[in-house]
Task: inverse folding
């Protein structure tokens, strides 16, 4: 799950990026409002963590511009401002949730998962596909009740494909969501992950759509 972190405090940003990466998120980090809008115009993110006290353009201005442009990406505001009026203004401008600094990283990760789940119209925290169950919070997968051991990238790739069941995801989309800026990517890395998932979960689960990408068929009824 690819997240955009918008935070100008280097110490806090380092901690949030490391903590969320450890929880299975792919985190790209920018440090001012203009850079945030440029990143959001150019690429897709599952959610945004947005500080309010930013240089160049403050967080509320970023939020207002984002919503005026019709971008529905879930936004969780990180702020030291605990005035009710600030919260009301942010929510009215289109924020989906608020977290007051200092905050617990585990709670932050849980709030992000909940935001993304709601944006996808899902009530169940787990993804279920036939006899396959994926738990995003615990980062576990079970097939027919038995645990399946996946690497971090295999888990994230499977979650993306299950989230998009019935739709083809292109190689570009998958790689953009799996890897953060500056992260080295081998030319055949995606194919290797797909191969390993098929070996562990069955060759029929993930279909190759030649010249386009990969697909998990709509979930069985």
Result:
């Amino acid at each position: 799950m690819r997240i955009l972190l918008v935070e100008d405090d280097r110490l806090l940003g380092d901690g949030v990026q490391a903590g969320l990466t450890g929880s299975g998120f792919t985190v790209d980090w920018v440090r001012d409002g203009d850079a945030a809008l440029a990143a959001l115009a150019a690429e897709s993110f599952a959610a945004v963590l947005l500080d309010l006290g930013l240089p160049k353009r403050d967080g509320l201005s970023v939020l207002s511009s984002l919503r005026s442009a019709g971008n529905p990406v879930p936004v969780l505001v990180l702020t030291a401002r605990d005035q009710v009026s600030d919260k009301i203004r942010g929510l009215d401008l289109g924020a989906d949730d608020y977290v007051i600094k200092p905050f617990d990283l585990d709670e932050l990760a849980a709030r992000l998962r909940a935001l993304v789940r709601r944006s996808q119209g899902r009530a169940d925290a787990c993804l279920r596909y036939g006899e396959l169950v994926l738990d995003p919070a615990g980062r576990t997968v079970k097939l027919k009740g038995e645990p399946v051991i996946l690497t971090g990238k295999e888990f994230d790739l499977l979650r993306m494909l299950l989230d998009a069941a019935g739709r083809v995801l292109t190689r570009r989309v998958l790689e953009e969501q799996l890897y953060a800026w500056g992260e080295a990517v081998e030319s055949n890395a995606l194919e290797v992950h797909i191969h390993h998932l098929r070996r562990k979960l069955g060759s029929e689960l993930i279909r190759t759509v030649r010249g386009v990408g990969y697909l998990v068929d709509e979930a069985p009824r």
Q: What stands out?
A: The first helix runs from residue 10 to 22. The helical segments are 10-22, 33-42, 59-68, 84-93, 105-119, 152-163, 171-178, 189-201. The CA atoms of residues 135 and 181 lie 26 Å apart.
